[in-house]
Structure formats: C-alpha cells, structure tokens
Write a structure and sequence with these properties.
two-stranded antiparallel sheet; mainly alpha
C-alpha cells in the first residue's frame, strides 16, 4: 500500500499546473527534436538547461525528462517517412517502417509505433516506480569504497557498450575525469589542472561542455556537408488506428520489447540503441515468417520502438537511486540536480520525495500527452522536416551562444563552449564517442571524493577495495568486461552498435 500512496502523492505533484505545463513543453520539444535528424535529445537538453535555472527545480527536471523520452517518439516519424532515423535508437525502425510506408501502410506503421511506445513507456514507468525504492534502500548500505567501485563499473560498462574502439572510449573517459576535476581541490584548496589560469579556478562548467560537444559540433559537421532537401515519401496518412490483425501481430513484440528495453536501459551505455537491436533480433528469431522482416513486417516496427521507449524509463533507475548516470542525457540531468542542490542517490527519495515521485508519475502523464499529440500532428512534423538546414543550424548556433552566456553572464563560458565545439567536431570526425567524456566529467569529482574517503578509512591503504565483498565482486566484473572485446563475436556486436550510433 505504501507504493500506491507514494504514486498518488506523485500524481498530486505532477498534476500541479506549472508541472503539467513544463511536462507538455518538454514532450513537445522532445518530439520535435526526434523528428529533426541530426539534433538529438543531448543537444536539445544542453541548449535548454540554462533556461530552466530560474524555474522551479521539479518542473525543470520534468521538462528535461520529457525531452528525453519524447525524442524516442519523434524518431520513428523520420524512420518511417524518410528512411532516416531521427535518433540512433530508431535505426532498426527504418528496415520495416519505410517498407510499410512504400506499400501504402505509413499510417499503420506510425500508429503501431505510437501505441507501442505508449504501452512500453507505461510499463517502464510502473517498473521504475516499483524497483527504485527497494534499490535505493539497499544503496543506503553502501559506503565510499562501494560507491567508488560502482562508478568505476559504470564507466567501464559505458565504454564497453559505446561501440567502436574501446581504447578510444577509455581515453575519453580518462579525459573526462581530468576535465571534471579542474579547479580548486575541495580538501586542500590547491588549484588542479588550471595551468595558472584564474578563469579555471571555478572549474569547467557542464553546460558549456555539452553544448559544445553536442550542439556546436553538430552545426560544424552539417556545414561541411551538402545540405540538400530530404525527400519525404508522399502518402496519405489514413488508417492510423491499427487493425485487429495489426494488434495480433504486434502485441507480443510490444510486450517483449518493453521488458527487454527496460532492463537493458538500466545498463550504462546506449541502452535504447542496444535494446532496439536486441528486440529486432528476438522478433525475427521467434517469428513464424522471418522472411518478411526487412520487407514491411509490423513486428519489426512494434518491437524496437517499444524497446527504445521502455529503455528511457529504465535509465532513470540508476540515476535516481544510485546517483549513477547511464548515458549522456542522464549525466546532464545529474548535473542539473546537483546545480539545484538535489543530488540524486539513495537519500533522494526521502529528502526530496516531491521530485522523486513527481518525475516518475509525470512520465506517465507525458506518455499520454505524446500519444494524443503525435498522431494528429504527423502532418505538422512532415512540414517541419522541410525546413532548410542552412536556416536551422545558424539558429542552433545562436541559441548555443545565448545559453552559454546567460548561464553566468561570463564570456569565458562562450570560449569554453567554442573550444569543446571544435573538439567535439574533431572527435566525431575521428570516431571518438562524446558520451564517456560527459559521464566521466560528471562522475570524476564524485569518484575523487569517494576514493579519498575510502583511503582515509583505511589509513591510506588500497586493500580496502579488495577486502569488502561488494567491491571485490564489482572489480572482478570490471576485469571481465575489459577482457570481453578480445572475443571476436563480442567485437562484431560492438562494431554494429557503434555504426548505428553514428547514423544521424
């Protein structure tokens, strides 16, 4: 009964007019971000983060969360109509969604994608509500050594699942730890990694870094490409409500995709991307007609779209209960919560129950809004797709400049953003993933504090990490993960995921 009381309390928070408004704004922007190829929720949240600092913290987190899961809804639109995934998690949807559109069933594909996403999102929120409290209670037993080992595991899993070269991912993670620890040491008050520059004594802000890595770099990449208009498949959107046969063919893929996505979304790294690939593979294996996949099988749309939406709910579990972000979006949300003086972790549920339960229940309300919004507004999304990129990207650049300056009215923030923008551009050109850098930047100071507290507990000896059972198990898992890429089969899977994440 306690969980039901908490959920009712959460609905009381989420249904407040200001929170409802921010939830609506978030899911609307998220859908738009998902529709426009090349933008993504990370860049969008980075752009809008400075604008939320003067708003109520709960409403701000609700809006930023809405952008994240709303983008998963919008990504299917471009996959089905244009054969271009708006999001990396919607790559698989292109295979059968576009073929359905070519056969005159664009409406059915968009409809089952919307309904499947709603069902998956709802089941994911229910799983989040029931799993998060007991996990938070267990995490209260963790000490500094356990937290340090857990953060090391998180970064290791992220680098493993990021795709591409694991060495490059590890390099980015190490660089992120260094960037995160720039500034005055909290214990000794000595400057670290400042190179004698007073402007770095306060550290490197998260917002300029993520705006540069994911906003400015995207503009630079698209400027050098030939920006031609996207060819949209012309069809009438009729039959948006799936037929009875469509439901029969889709209901089990939706349920399987929801379960897979939720549990894979908990893992650090591109859970939504991996879950959509796994769901597609499972559906093709269990199907009585696997030869139809790639030719317009509705299960090939229902399963992956359900998986990537359910994964967004799963990603909130380690963030809210352990303070451990599972992807770049969660890292930005972690940074936002710390700015609002609401650090996530096991004590969040008791210290800030309005935030914890308000965000969870708002995700269900947001899913209802998305279901209502997406189907009637398909025509509008199609028109937005026709916006010329030479107009769109200068606007993004302008918003980046305004956002970076308005944060602290400090021109140094603009300089840092531009530096990381160029760095992000070079990273993408040479296939370096930015997600490990952002996560390590956020986790770096936390890891540093946990490590030093652990060493103080042990009198300066490192054996404390190998005498505590939880730490020993976690570091053993880290060692296994680092050795896995040596297996040829695992290496091929990581390469496939990496290629999917590079598609925009």
């Amino acid at each position: 009964m306690d969980i039901l009381n908490h959920i009712l309390f959460g609905f009381g928070v989420a249904l407040q007019p200001v929170n409802l408004l921010f939830c609506f704004i978030g899911v609307l922007i998220g859908t738009l971000v998902g529709v426009l190829p090349g933008l993504g929720p990370v860049a969008a949240i980075s752009l809008l983060l400075p604008a939320t600092f003067h708003a109520p913290p709960v409403a701000s987190i609700i809006m930023l969360s809405g952008i994240y899961y709303g983008a998963m809804y919008g990504g299917s639109t471009t996959s089905i109509l244009v054969n271009i995934p708006g999001e990396a998690a919607s790559v698989v949807t292109c295979l059968d969604g576009y073929q359905m559109a070519r056969r005159g069933r664009a409406g059915a594909a968009l409809g089952i994608s919307a309904f499947g996403s709603f069902i998956a999102g709802t089941l994911g929120v229910i799983g989040l509500a029931f799993m998060a409290p007991p996990l938070a209670a267990m995490a209260l037993k963790f000490g500094p050594p356990e937290y340090f080992s857990l953060m090391v595991l998180g970064l290791t899993v992220l680098t493993f699942l990021a795709g591409g070269s694991m060495l490059k991912s590890l390099m980015m993670a190490c660089f992120g730890v260094v960037v995160g620890n720039v500034g005055l040491d909290l214990i000794t008050a000595q400057p670290r990694f400042t190179f004698g520059l007073d402007v770095l004594l306060d550290g490197v802000g998260l917002v300029p870094v993520v705006m540069g890595l994911f906003g400015i770099s995207e503009v630079l990449l698209n400027v050098e490409e030939k920006l031609s208009e996207r060819e949209i498949f012309k069809t009438e959107f009729k039959g948006l409500l799936p037929t009875l046969q469509d439901w029969k063919d889709s209901i089990w893929p939706i349920l399987r995709g929801s379960g897979l996505g939720f549990f894979l979304g908990i893992l650090p790294g591109g859970g939504a991307v991996i879950s959509s690939f796994v769901s597609y593979g499972v559906e093709k294996k269990v199907s009585k007609h696997p030869e139809e996949f790639g030719k317009g099988a509705i299960a090939g749309v229902a399963g992956p779209e359900s998986a990537n939406n359910s994964a967004t709910a799963g990603a909130f579990i380690p963030l809210l209960t352990l303070g451990l972000p599972s992807n770049a979006v969660m890292a930005i949300l972690l940074g936002a919560l710390m700015i609002y003086n609401m650090p996530p972790g096991p004590r969040l549920i008791t210290a800030h129950p309005n935030l914890f339960w308000g965000v969870i229940t708002s995700m269900y309300i947001g899913n209802v809004m998305l279901l209502i919004l997406n189907l009637p507004l398909i025509g509008l999304w199609v028109k937005i797709l026709k916006i010329p990129y030479p107009i769109l990207f200068p606007l993004i650049l302008l918003f980046c400049l305004i956002g970076a300056y308005s944060l602290n009215t400090n021109p140094v923030e603009i300089g840092l953003m531009l530096i990381f923008g160029v760095l992000g551009y070079l990273m993408k050109k040479f296939k370096y993933d930015g997600a490990p850098l952002v996560l390590a930047m956020v986790l770096g100071p936390l890891m540093d504090n946990s490590l030093r507290q652990s060493l103080l507990m042990s009198g300066g000896g490192g054996m404390i990490f190998f005498t505590r059972p939880i730490c020993l198990v976690i570091f053993g898992t880290v060692a296994i993960i680092l050795l896995l890429p040596l297996l040829p089969h695992i290496s091929r899977i990581r390469k496939t995921v990496g290629e999917a994440e590079n598609i925009k």
